[in-house]
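agent> fetching stored inputs for the uridine-diphosphate-N-acetylglucosamine docking request
agent> found them:
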Amino acid sequence: MDKLLIAGGARLSGEVSISGAKNAALPILCAALLTAEPVTFTNVPQLKDIATLLHLLADMGVKVERNADTVTLHAAEISNPVASYELVKTMRAAILVLGPLVARCGETKVSLPGGCAIGARPVDQHIKGLQAMGAEVSVEHGYVLAKSPRLKGVRLFTDMVTVTGTENLMMAACLAEGVTVIENAAREPEVVDLANCLVAMGAQISGAGTDVIRIKGVDHLHGTTHRIMPDRIETGTYLCAAAVTGGDVRLVDTSSAYLDAVIDKLMDAGCDIVSERHAIHIKAPAKLKAVSLRTSPYPAFPTDMQAQFMALNCVAEGSAIIRETIFENRYMHAVELQRLGADIKIDGNTAFVTGVAKLQGATVMATDLRASASLVIAGLVAEGETIVDRIYHLDRGYEKLEEKLAALGARVRRMN
Ligand code: UD1
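agent> prediction call returned; pasting tokens
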């Protein structure tokens, strides 16, 4: 299993290019299931999760062509509308094929996602929505079986804000008969990127980016070309990496447009941030100030940036209170950060972090994608060597992480 070896203490400087957004690419690639025509996507990040999804789509009979960051998918016929446990267990987002498959094929069998390190993460809202649209849905032997000759447009209300739930139901509604209204919809920018792609494919959608999305079903969608938006979480992660090292970094091929909550906190921590049209320039002070935060659905502070900010607070001046409100078990990085000498106390969904003068390098274990990112950030600033074990989690969501960090001056290398 690969590990990452980091010699801490190097100040990051220079320019880094941000990749396309994993969490936009995953649903958008699934949207290709909704049409018999080829669809081309650009700025698709080269990540393990994307490779897994392309494998899954190919398994269903979709023709997949990939050339660097361009992917063309042609779902002329879907011979096998099934997502097996073997493929779904490593990537929860595979549930995103459920809506498109039932809408396009009238029948599908999709494995329930396996257990997840950051909490139970059920898919009841996805199922409830499809049932309300007239699908017969049952869960048998670990699989969701859904059937419907044609889904019907209805008014849907999700019990909580769910990102992939909103995306699944929005995709299903594109080919339904009549109008679907999704209330309490997720407002995440990735939902908007998906809606833009669907509209370019001929869907009739309004309200994406608000909490009420209206979709008027059409009989067919057609092919298009769509560029995936920049990854706001990768952007935020490099901003934190620059911040903890007192760095001076320009992030290109990205935008601060979807990062207000994160950028506000970095400015509170003492960073100087200048936003350009397709770039962000961060200059960090020698010592950061601790910043408290509370995670919530967009546009509030993203749960996917919580771990990275915990690492930042570990080396800041003062104390911070972090509240995680989206997932019930998302502090597994805290014990690993403690191994590096961090002062963190956890009480339920609240973490109390007091900055220490120095973290010390040690061997730590990555437990999920963003937790791994927080350990890398801590390793960059820790004294001595940090080994981050189990970095397959990082490979799921960060393109060329060690290359990008090394180009900014970090002393980091992968070990087999
Ligand atoms: C997406 C993101 C993930 C991010 C999360 C929250 C993708 C591929 N993943 O995950 O990176 O951390 O949003 O911003 O886009 N829930 C239910 N029942 C459901 C659906 C969700 O109880 O049917 C709960 C979840 O357990 C969680 C909360 O709702 O507590 C939000 O989850 P959700 O927004 O669905 O997360 P994902 O879409 O899986």
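agent> quick read of the result: Residues 232-244 form the longest helix (13 residues).
agent> awaiting further instructions
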